[in-house]
Amino acid sequence: MASTTKSSPLSFSLLLIFTLLFLHPIVSSFTIKEATVADFQLGFQNKSLTSRQLVQFYMDEIDRLNLTFNAVIEVNPDALALADAADRERNAAAPGQSLSDLHGIPILLKDNIATKDKMNTTAGSLALLRSVVPRDAGVVVKLRQAGAIILGKASLTEWANFRGKRMPSGWCARSGQGKNPYTSSDPCGSSSGSAIAAAANLAAVTLGTETDGSILCPSSYNAVVGFRPTLGLTSRAGVIPITLRQDTVGPICRTVADAVYVLDAIAGVDSHDAATTEAAKYIPTGGYKQYLKTDGLKGTRLGLLKDAFFNFPTESVENKTYERHFNTLRQRGAVLVDNLDASKFMEVYEDIGTNEILAMTAEFKLAINSYLQTLEVSSVRSLKDLIEFNNKNSDLEKIEQYGQERFLEAEATNGIREKEQEAIQKLADMSRDGFEKIMRENNLDALLASPLSLASSILATGQHPGITVPAGVDGEGLPFGLCFGGLKGSEPTLIKVAYDFEQATKIRRPPPSVTHSSY
């Protein structure tokens, strides 16, 4: 029998308040500092945030902090207009219509990634200022298709650290010396600006490139997540090259999930990069975010060669921290395979540096000459032109101080001849007899490493993927990470283990000296 009791004015008021608070949330301020892509999308949905507000916040933070950190070379003059367009698209979307995870999200690109817009693409050098690229880089095309907003260009170690042997990490002629927001010192290179910007909350997410360590190292130094994909998983078309045999493009973000959202957006076939056709076989149906699992470590086999990749003093902060993390990995269900012969493994890589540089030097000349020839407008058309430009602008490019030895050595090469072919073959043999062998013979899902060890070269020369996650801070206040490396196409497994480790530890903290506003 239905009740006939009448509601009192007080009870009606309480019901109304309950309804307003819980069924129709009041739009409140949105704290952007350290927010994730998922947080931003929730803010968009509940109307507590717009893309314009998000872009304006980052533009204001760049204005406020970039003179200190030198992480950003230039801001896209169309960024606010792009944000307004994203807001209009979102408001016009049909009920239930699904937009990309990156829709309306601002992203900074390393300044060797081409954009066909009002911005420059210069690799940090004055030589390419006001040059005109033929088209957006392949990854930029995909980002725009996903609805991401290109916020600007991040600084880098000039020419991706392939100009002079004395070049400090993070320096380029266009923006000066990039600084680590935790220590005001070495940010590591060459994707230094992307890592600094992500760490200091100057962008929602960023994109870097790696030939050898240029994503993993700066991500480690700046307490962010860096993901170097399998070679060809992301397009290198429109990226100022060093060598197509090792160059790759990947995300640098504050969380594993954010890095995966970016990877989902940029992975795939590009007709301008043949390597993407072969690597496309590795992309799983449904993309990569399905592997963001908090039980991702359970049952995995992780290789641990302490003497090779974690050679720290017993009483050091790093050693104690890594030992604690190894225990965490075990507690989360991983099997750490540590009965591996590190000395025998490292013997395989005895000459890796010599062979890598030998091959890379000749490949660079061919690659950079080809790239410069594609530019619609440019005052330089060859490596020889770059060398002459630097000589004429020695003070601006700090040639006497930082040199251009790599350029000169590359210019002296004459194609891929017998010694270069031998070096390339030796690198392939090293990967086969070293990393690939130890992974397969021990049925390993990933190999653990410090991002600052030889592991970056092992992954790079073998064209394998790796992801680094914040792991701690050393005695001097410099962050360091834990790297998970895998065989080609093992991104799903690396995502699972990295995400589970991140969620179990939650090490990352924003730079203590950086304060932010909120909307």
From TrEMBL:
PANTHER family in the cross-refs: AMIDASE, AMIDASE DOMAIN-CONTAINING PROTEIN
Give all residue intervals belonging to the Amidase domain: 54-449
Can you name this protein?
Amidase domain-containing protein
Question: Hydrolase: present as a keyword of the record?
Answer: no
InterPro entries in the cross-refs:
Amidase_dom (IPR023631), AS_sf (IPR036928)
A Pfam match is Amidase
Range of residues in the leader sequence: 1-29
- Record has Phosphoprotein as a keyword: no
UniProt keywords, alphabetically:
Signal
Q: Which organism is it from?
A: Hibiscus trionum (Flower of an hour)
